[in-house]
Write a structure and sequence with these properties.
single chain; about 350 residues; alpha/beta; Rossmann fold; UDP-galactose 4-epimerase, domain 1; 2 domains; 11 helices; 15 strands; about 40% helix; globular
Length: about 350
């Protein structure tokens, strides 16, 4: 039997690492595409015990000739594009770079596939941030996009160009509109990881305070390993399409903070004035909001409807809000003890 080959861009990220492990477990030959940089770190692959099992190749989404060479050489059966400038806040400071990587990078990749490996199945990592100031609750595959950040705008372009190549060239292209999905492998730039990591350190007296932005923003949070399985299901269904992956629940950042500290047996008491929101534990301020972490334009509420994925792909999230926090806190505490 022919061994399937998968190429994953963004291999160093949370999703890239979990997806690589899943595909390796399924018998795939996995290639991890990564750009050359001085800060390259494969700690997530090492943490999952797969660093030596992934074949690393250097590929930069800014360089078309490089992309062509990789596609021609590997001829992957499946390509998962998880690479991006993925930090919303950074996109306001670097809108041109964000667009070059997230939008034009996807177009370069699609064009290389069309020219040199048109039979390959392609997955594009779309995002719930594309819904922006939402037009309806919950959001599904037919909800209009209304992006409010350069990051989200770049992702809308990538989403539609992927759909366009599917229609125009009969390519097997799928877009996964994934709502927030978390784990221990999240980067510290993401609020859930920051909350859990800091709360555990506060519990063990290693740090004094958690500083956050808008505690009233609401998100639909799921568990990353389940979401990468959804990516795999999309590319292994009979025909290409686009799917929302979510939990159909929405919780505020404040709720996430409360539940995290509660799991650590630290019940918080909140107060708010005109300038800040604070939370106390034993009369000591342990959480405080700061304007530094507010976005120029905020997405207030995201909540996804995964009915289509459930009905067609038989995908359904098993880990919901409380369980997600339990998993993240336990793994963070265990790692800290080591």
């Amino acid at each position: 039997m022919k061994v399937k080959k998968a190429l994953i861009t963004g291999i160093r990220g949370q999703d890239g690492a979990y997806l690589a492990k899943l595909l390796l477990d399924l018998g795939y030959e996995v290639y991890g595409a990564d750009r050359r940089s001085s800060d390259s770190s494969y700690w997530r692959l090492e943490y999952l015990g797969i660093k030596d099992k992934v074949k690393l190749v250097y590929m930069d989404l800014l360089e078309f000739s490089n992309i062509q060479d990789v596609i021609k050489e590997i001829k992957p059966d499946e390509i998962y594009n998880l690479a991006a400038q993925s930090f919303v806040q950074v996109s306001f400071n670097q809108p041109l770079l964000t667009s070059e990587v997230n939008a034009m990078g996807v177009l370069r990749l699609l064009e290389a596939i069309r020219l040199y490996n048109p039979e390959a199945k392609f997955y594009q990592a779309s995002t719930s941030e594309m819904f922006g100031q939402v037009k309806e609750i919950p959001q599904n595959e037919n909800t209009p996009f209304n992006p409010v950040s350069p990051y989200a705008v770049s992702k809308v372009f990538a989403h539609y160009i992927t759909v366009n190549y599917r229609i125009a060239y009969n390519m097997f292209n799928c877009c996964g509109i994934l709502f927030n999905h978390e784990s221990f492998l999240r980067g510290m730039e993401f609020v859930t990881k920051k909350i859990v990591n800091t709360a555990v350190k506060i519990k063990y007296n290693l740090i004094d305070k958690l500083i956050v932005g808008n505690v009233y923003a609401k998100r639909d949070w799921g568990y990353a390993p389940e979401y990468v399985y959804g990516m795999y299901l999309m590319l292994n269904y009979d025909k290409p399409d686009d799917y929302v992956l979510a939990t159909n629940e929405s919780h505020s950042v404040k709720e996430f903070i409360d539940k995290t500290f509660e799991y650590l047996n630290m019940k918080l008491k909140w107060e708010e004035d005109e300038k800040k929101v604070r939370a106390y534990y034993n009369d000591k301020v342990v959480v405080e909001s700061s304007a530094e972490f507010y976005r120029p334009s905020e997405v207030n509420l995201l909540q996804g409807d995964y009915t289509k994925a459930r009905n067609i792909l038989k995908w359904e999230p098993k880990v919901k809000f409380d369980k997600l926090i339990e998993i993240m806190v336990n793994e963070e505490a265990n790692y800290l003890r080591k």
